[in-house]
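quick one: zinc ion bound model?
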Amino acid sequence: MSTPMSTTAPVTTRPKGAATMKAVVVHGPEDYRLESRPVPSPGPDELLIAVEAVGVCASDLKCFHGAAKFWGDAARPAWAEVGRVPGHEFVGRVVAGDPRALARRGLALGDRIACEQIVPCGRCRPCSRGQYWMCGPHDMFGFRGFDGAMAEYAIVPARALTHPVSGELPAHHAAYAEPLSCAMHAVERAELRFGDTVVIAGAGPIGLGAIAAARQKNPLRVIALDRSDEKLALARRCGADVTVNIDDEDAVARVLGLTGGEGADVYIEATGHPSAVLQGLRLLRKLGTFVEYSVFGSDVTVDWSIISDDKELDVRGAHLGPGCWPAAIKLIESGALPMEDICTHQVPLEQFQAALDLVGDTAGSSIKVSILP
Ligand SMILES: [Zn+2]
Ligand SMILES: [Zn+2]
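yep, here:
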């Protein structure tokens, strides 16, 4: 929207009574601290939200543990910033803001909103082509450019992309809009057809979202792979027709058996485990489509001639949830998803470290862990 910069001060700058707030602050890898900070005041074109819930993402954990993707190495500079408040999967109530920002976004004080995790620059080549999720500077709440939501309050900057969310939902269910929109984008990248057999590896927050999203498209067969029977039971409730525990059964043989020896049409990788890449290459049919969503902690080595000579596969990446937020919010609001069981843990802000540890305990029972400031 091309309105001139406001010259008038915001009318409502701060919720009454609150001068300081509790916030988690990044001091460096494995050094996040709960601190008292001034409640930020929204400037021109900005809003202030009272954070209701913020999901803890696998990426938050990787950043916490110092992964090179965030803190750099010999091959790349650091992307994450010290001094930031982490947290990019959030919803909150608008408690203050520039009246023009409210009008521009069609919002009133008290409304609940979700923000897309990326805050696009609007000027780089991808942004200028509408491909904002690949924005060059890649400012993202909680990592770079803007403070995130592991705090009582957060600023919604002028360039943020906001979406209204029903105030009726439990806040931690509403905050699942972020991972669900990402999962929906991964499914869109696969360009599903009705006759497809779709295999989704991993039944964590992204995998379950991808299963639910694939179900919305209603292809012939949705197959979920995981190592946990509990997560696979949840995968069925999200819409999987077939579940395979890869510790008990050979997933490649099972998929080949279900498809007359041809293999799956689509494989969506949402585990982050290197072994899941070769598994996908092996269980896809010739001319099949491989969608990679995960972020890996280490390099993956496979025989690339499976992609070329053997099967002529389409290999596609997927990142963030462009264009999928309204549909993700609608799907959560519909009540069709087993949100009570997807959102396994809710903890107060003071226990942010326990929340990170729960996400890191991959053998544990957690799926979506949320902090309720
Ligand atoms: Zn996330
Ligand atoms: Zn940009």
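The pocket of zinc ion (ligand 1) is lined by residues 57, 59, 88-89, 178-179 (CB under 6 Å).
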